[in-house]
Input
Amino acid sequence: MKPSIYGLTFEQLSDWLVDHGEKKFRSKQVWDWLYQKRVTDFDDMKNVNQSCIDVLKENFTIETLSEEIKQESEDGTIKYLFKLHDGNVIETVLMRFNYGLSVCVTTQVGCNIGCSFCASGVLRKHRDLSGGEIVEQIMKVQQHLDQKENDERVSHIVVMGIGEPFDNYDNLIDFLKVVNDKKGLSIGARHITVSTSGIAPKMYEFADEGIQINLALSIHAPTNELRTQIMKINRAYPLEKLMPAIDYYLEKTNRRITFEYILLKDVNDHVKEAHQLADLLMDKKHLSYVNLIPYNPVADNPYERSEKDAILNFYETLMDRGIKCGVRTEHGTDIDAACGQLRSKQIEKEKARKKQKQDKAGV
Output
């Protein structure tokens, strides 16, 4: 399978074209056709010379994803299930906010982080997505918006879909450079958020990138004992390693960090844990924001959604301690809302179909 053209940053495309005998200015033309006019066929690049088109067609493809399922919610949320060239499937979600349209992208096929509450982690990591496959998720959503002719554009991105972004670091960085490029989609760095479960070494590296991309940390528990219970990654990067990485990021960037905290009934949602979380963040509260997330139950999972009173008490405790926080607005509650849920269901259906065929064939 040829690699996706979307995997090249503008600089990489320019160098590649020059190395293949084309003039450097061709990169601006090709980039414009890809990201401004958003063509899906190299032959539609009308002002690009034929030799350039031929060499691009020989070495790259524009489309590597195909739409399998599209679920639309009453609130305007759209969840896409895309099939990759190797038959694997991934999820991408479009969410509508009063400040714009945000897309949640996936970075891996499956996930090895092993968070016990997460639908994404039910299926182990199969492979990393290429930078082009991550970019193409944005392009597919934007092309869908273009077809509706309502003059809407993707304005925000959250890298919070299936997989751990920092476990696919180089492709993540290429993706960020492509979507942020002012000559292309021009999605502002401050409108992009990358979420990590806490791979501490990569947090140092991300801080040193010198970019204005927002960072969110999935913390979900305020102590090592509880965090290890629900997040296996805490064994490798316990709070003693994680908090210095956060301090380095804050000192290096002076940018606020968001702490994601999923509330699990009678697990991590007591006032006690709220105080422990406040203690943990107290020395950095001026650059901290806690995003409290009501849990979306997952099939065959022991966790339940916290009661409304527990969520309110947790919120009020943090606010009383001077920790800025909010409860995440829910989207797509009438469709497969939890990340990875649609993918998991589809994979189970495919397994059932295969089994039925085998049974009929007497295998």
Summary: The CA atoms of residues 77 and 95 lie 5 Å apart. The mean pLDDT is 92. Residues 341-361 form the longest helix (21 residues).
